[in-house]
Specification:
- The complex is a heterodimer.
- Chain A has no helices and 11 strands.
- Chain A is an all-beta fold.
- In chain A, a hairpin with a 5-residue loop joins strand 7 (64-68) and strand 8.
- Chain B is globular, with a radius of gyration of 14 Å.
- By secondary structure, chain B is mainly β.
- In chain B, strands 2, 5, 6, 10, 11 and 12 form a 6-stranded mixed β-sheet that branches. In chain B, strands 3-9-8-7 form a 4-stranded antiparallel β-sheet, with no helix packed on it.
- In chain B, strand 10 and strand 11 (104-105) form a beta hairpin.
- Chain B has no helices and 12 strands.
- The chains are: A mainly beta, B mainly beta.
- The interface between A and B is medium-sized, with 25 and 25 residues.
Chain lengths: 112, 115
């Protein structure tokens, strides 16, 4: 069974641009979570999607947004990129809300 | 709100020595507890979990953790480590029940196993 997949592996952008990150959950999983792992800040919860709806978001500005598609895959959009957005963005999925989360390999976003 | 404290940022040990990675949490409600491992340039892998039942949980590669509610701890142990165990280990909590299923992570412990 395939695990959580994320694309692209690496993404390089400049300040002010927009970035789009994609995630495909494990087959059968309906909940998708996004986390940011930035140097010195640790792992921080970004967004949670379940059944196509945004259920919760962490303490991030509105320029971090996303969506979940009918096939449960998800997209994270970061607008007006800032240097401090450089981080590893991890996507996780769970069979349903409240179950253990399984992580993908991440997308390394570098903002120059 | 929940919080997690991993008391050691780095733990160096020699191969075949025992190791304990400490994790304490704070929460006003019941929680689920997890340990994740992150190898260099990779995502997180679930190592073990405590949801309910026996307070001692084990992984397939020899790690174990014990949930201690009175001490609000979930320390990770292995009686004999290998070079391949070198990685960063993250303790995490999730509120059980309710409507917020985010994971709250500790800052991680870098385990370095030396020959």
């Amino acid at each position: 069974e395939a695990g959580v997949t994320q694309s692209p592996t690496h993404l390089i952008k400049t300040r002010g641009q927009q970035a789009t990150l994609r995630c495909s959950p494990i087959s059968g999983h309906t909940s998708v979570y996004w986390y940011q792992q930035a140097l010195g800040l640790g792992l921080q919860f970004l967004l949670w999607y379940d059944e196509g709806e945004e259920r919760n978001r962490g303490n991030f500005p509105p320029r971090f947004s996303g969506r979940q598609f009918p096939n449960y895959s998800s997209e994270l959009n970061v607008n007006a990129l800032e240097l401090e957005d450089s981080a590893l963005y991890l996507c996780a999925s769970s069979l349903w809300s409240g179950q253990e989360q399984f992580f993908g390999p991440g997308t390394r976003l570098t903002v120059l | 709100a929940q919080s997690v404290t991993q008391l050691d940022s780095q733990v160096p040990v020699f191969e075949e020595a025992p190791v304990e990675l400490r994790c304490n949490y704070s929460s006003s409600v019941s929680v689920y507890l997890f340990w994740y491992v992150q190898y260099p340039n990779q995502g997180l892998q679930l190592l073990l979990k405590y949801l309910s039942g026996s307070t001692l949980v084990e992984s397939i590669n020899g790690f174990e953790a014990e949930f201690n509610k009175s001490q609000t701890s979930f320390h990770l142990r292995k009686p004999s480590v290998h070079i391949r165990d070198t990685a960063e280990y993250f303790c995490a909590v999730m509120r059980s029940g309710g409507s917020n299923y985010k994971l709250t992570f500790g800052k991680g412990t870098l385990l370095t196993v030396n020959p």
